[in-house]
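ok so heres the complex, two chains, lmk if somethin looks off
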Amino acid sequence: MQFTLKIERWNPETEQGGLDEFTVEAPETATLLDVLDVVKDEVDGSVTYRKSCRMAVCGSCGMRIDGAAALACKTPMAPLAQEGRVPVISPMGNLPVIKDLVVDMDPFWAKFRAVKPWLEEDDQPPVKEWRVQQEELDRIMKEALCIQCGACVSECNSMQSDPEFLGPAALAKAAKFVGDVRDRDRKGRLELYNGPHGVWDCTRCYFCNERCPKGVDPRDAIAKIGAEIYSEGMLSDKAARHAQVFDVSTRATGYLLETALVPYTDPMKALDIKFAMQMARAGKVPNPLRPHRAKKLGEVRKLHKLLKTQEADARAQKRAGVSVDREEAGS
Amino acid sequence: MKQSYAYYPGCLASLSQKELDVSTRAIAAKLGMELIDIPGFTCCGAGDVHEARPEYYLHLNARILGQAEQLEQDTLLTICNVCTLNLRQADLRLKGDPELLERVNANLRDVGAAPYAGGVEVRHLLWEIAEGEGYERLKAIAEKPLVGVRIAPFYGCQILRPSKLLGFEDPDRPQSLERIIEACGAEPVDYPSKIKCCGFPIVLAREEVALGELIQPLAEARDAGADAMVTPCPLCHLSLDAWQSKAAREADMDFGMPIFHLAQLVGAAAGLSYDELLFKRHVTKTHPATDKIYAQG
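and the predicted structre for the whole thing:
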C-alpha cells in the first residue's frame, strides 16, 4: 500500500527546518513507526526519531500526527491513507526539539523527579513485605499504567502558558503515591503538590485524557490529589478557596454565589474596580443581597450534610484499614 | 413534530449570563423545541465540586437527573460545556454501575429527593441542532441569512474531551459549529486554537496562566479575519468576552472581538432582534458584527 506523509524537519547544526514530503510502499497493516522506518531505510537516512519496543510499552516514539500526540507504533496508517489524508508528522509540544521528531525529555524527567516518585518510609519500617489489599491496589492501578511517553504533556494547555507547571504525567505519578497505602508522607506530598505550579494550575482542558495511549486519564489523577488536599482543609491556594465557594454555595442557595466567588477566592481581585464596573455595566453583577435560591433547597442541604458525614467515615475507615495492615506487616 | 426536553440552564445562564438563557428560550420556540423547566434544579458543582468533593458532585448530578426523569423526559438539554460533561459523566457512571446507582439512590431517598432510574440522556443544544431533524429545522428558521459575516467557532474543551464521555464528533476535527454557522448563512473562519482551552476554570486563581491561554484563540480568530466568535459554552463566553480587555493588555494587542453565544447566532439568523437576544449584556461591544448583521434588514 502506498503511504504519503509530511515530516517536520529540524537540523540543529544548520538551524534549518521545514516540511519534507515522502511517499513509500509499506504493508496495509503498517503503523506510523513502520512507515518512518521505510522512509529512513529507503529514502532519507537522516530522518531522526526515537523508537524501541514497537509495542506501546516503552513510551519512546511519542510524536504528533496532524497536531495530536500519539505513539507512532500504535497508530495504524491505512485509515489515514484511505481518507486521503497526508498527515503532518511533527515533534511533541511543550518540550524543546533536538532534531526532527526527537524532543529533549530532560524537562519532563525533572518534573517527574520533583514529585518524589518513590515510597517514603518513616522510623518504623516494616520487617516484612507490605500487604496491599487488591482494593487498595485497584485505586492506583490506572496511574500505574503510565509509560512516560509524554503525549499528555505535549498538548497540556496550562503548560503552554506556564512552562513550570508540573503537568499531567508527573502529577499522575504523584497521584499514584498519594493513593499508595505504603507511603508514609501523604501530608508532605500534598503540601508539595499544593504549591504554585502544582495541581491547581490544571485548566481542565482534558487534552491529557484524550491523548494518553494507556488510559491513565491524568486529569482525573490530578483531581484525586485536589480532593485529598481539599479533604485536609488545606485552603491556602486560591483555587482551593474557589472550590470551597462552589461547595458552600450549593448548600446555601443551590446555585453558585457569584458575588462571593471573587472576594473569597482572591480579596485583592475584588479591588479591581475597573473590571467590576465593566461587569456591572453589562448587567453581570447579581444583587448580593437577594441571591437566586433553588427550590427544594432542603434536599440539597440534607445531601450536603449526609455526604460530609459519609466522606468523613470513609476517610476514617481507610486510615484504620492501613494501620491494621501496618501492624500485621511489622509483627 | 414538537420535541420536548427537560431543560437545564445551569448556574451561569440563570445568573450573570442571563442572555444565554433568554436567547435559548427564544430560539427553542422557533425550532419547535419544548423546554420543560426542572423545578428545584441546582448547580452541577462545576469542575470545582467535581474535583474537591467527588461524592457530593455525583449526588448533586444524580439528583438533577432524577428530577429530569420525574418530568417524564428522556433528554436533558444543556447549554453549557461544563454542565454537559458533569452530568454526562455522572449519568454514565451511574448507568454502568448498578451497585453505585443503588447506593446513591438510597442517599437521595434519605433526603427526600427523587431517585434516578437511569432513563435520561444528557445532550447539549449544539448536538441537537447540528445534525438530523434539528439541523433541518435550523435551516428552515434561518430566514435571515447572515450573508458576508465571518464567524470563528470556538468549541471549548468539555464538549469535545474526553471523547469517550462526550463522543458527538471527532474531538480534533469538529465540524458541528461550522455546519451551524453555514446554516445561518454566515461564513465559518478556521483557525488552529478553536479546540483549545479559554482558561476560564483558573482565571481567578491563576489569572496569568489563564490569560496566556485566552490570548491565543483571540489573536488567531482576529488574524483569520473573523467579525465575531461563537461558543456553545457560557464559561468560554465569559472568558472571551469579559476577560478580553485584560488579555489584550497582557498581549499588548487590540482584539475588539465580539463574542456570540450559540443561541444568539441562531437567533440572529432566525430574525430575532438585537434587544431580544440581549446583545447589550456583553462586556466587549458586539456592534461591529451586530451592525453588519442588522444592517442587512
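quick notes: The mean pLDDT of chain A is 94. thats all i got rn
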